[in-house]
């Protein structure tokens, strides 16, 4: 009886571990989509109204709202975007580099420079979102199924 309880516990723990890894991959994809949607809103606002970055960031979603708040605290736009990036922990090194390049491009003096920076940022995010979706589909499935299969093998050894 004790072996059955142990086997069930091992299977459950492995399944939960696999689901946690799957959810982390999915969370990365979701956050990239949120940042991309915000960047698209900012680009539209700049295109239509040529508003200051602070006002554009306020309408850009949660990621850019954090940057706007940091800008009100006295940070430059590039530093504010870096600060907002630090608040999200699921980004990969490549995602962080894309955001860093975008932050470096915020020093453009005119709206057309900001638009070019945003267009490049959105294109890079689209590529990373596609990679993140592939990771969810391949690695995420592997994490879930692999953890359950590994647990099943361990259960067979236990029993």
How would you characterize the overall build of this protein?
The chain is an all-alpha fold. Helices cover 85% and strands 0% of the residues. It contains six helices and no strands. The longest helix has 48 residues, at 2-49.
Average pLDDT, rounded to a whole number, is: 88
**Outline, from the CA principal axes?**
elongated
**How many strands in all?**
0
Low-confidence stretches: none
Helix content: over 70%
Please describe the biggest sheet, giving its number of strands, its sense, and whether it closes into a barrel: none
Rg measurement, Å: 21 Å
Strand content: under 5%
- Estimated structural class: mainly alpha
Amino- and carboxy-terminal Cα gap: 11 Å
Give the count of helical stretches: 6
H/E element string? HHHHHH
Summarize the topology.
Blueprint: H1 2-49, H2 53-58, H3 62-72, H4 77-86, H5 93-104, H6 111-158
Helix pairs in contact: 1-6, 3-4, 4-5, 5-6
């Amino acid at each position: 009886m004790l072996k059955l309880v142990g086997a069930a516990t091992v299977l459950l723990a492995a399944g939960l571990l696999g689901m946690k890894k799957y959810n982390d991959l999915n969370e990365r994809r979701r956050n990239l989509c949120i940042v991309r949607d915000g960047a698209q809103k900012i680009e539209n606002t700049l295109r239509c109204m040529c508003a200051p970055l602070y006002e554009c960031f306020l309408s850009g979603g949660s990621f850019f709202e954090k940057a706007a708040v940091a800008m009100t605290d006295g940070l430059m736009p590039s530093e504010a975007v870096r600060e907002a990036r630090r608040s999200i922990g699921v980004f990969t090194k490549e995602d962080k580099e894309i955001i860093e390049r975008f932050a470096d491009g915020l020093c453009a003096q005119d709206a057309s420079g900001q638009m070019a920076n945003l267009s490049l940022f959105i294109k890079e995010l689209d590529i990373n979102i596609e990679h993140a979706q592939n990771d969810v589909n391949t690695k995420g499935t592997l994490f879930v199924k692999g953890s359950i299969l590994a647990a099943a093998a361990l259960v067979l050894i236990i029993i």
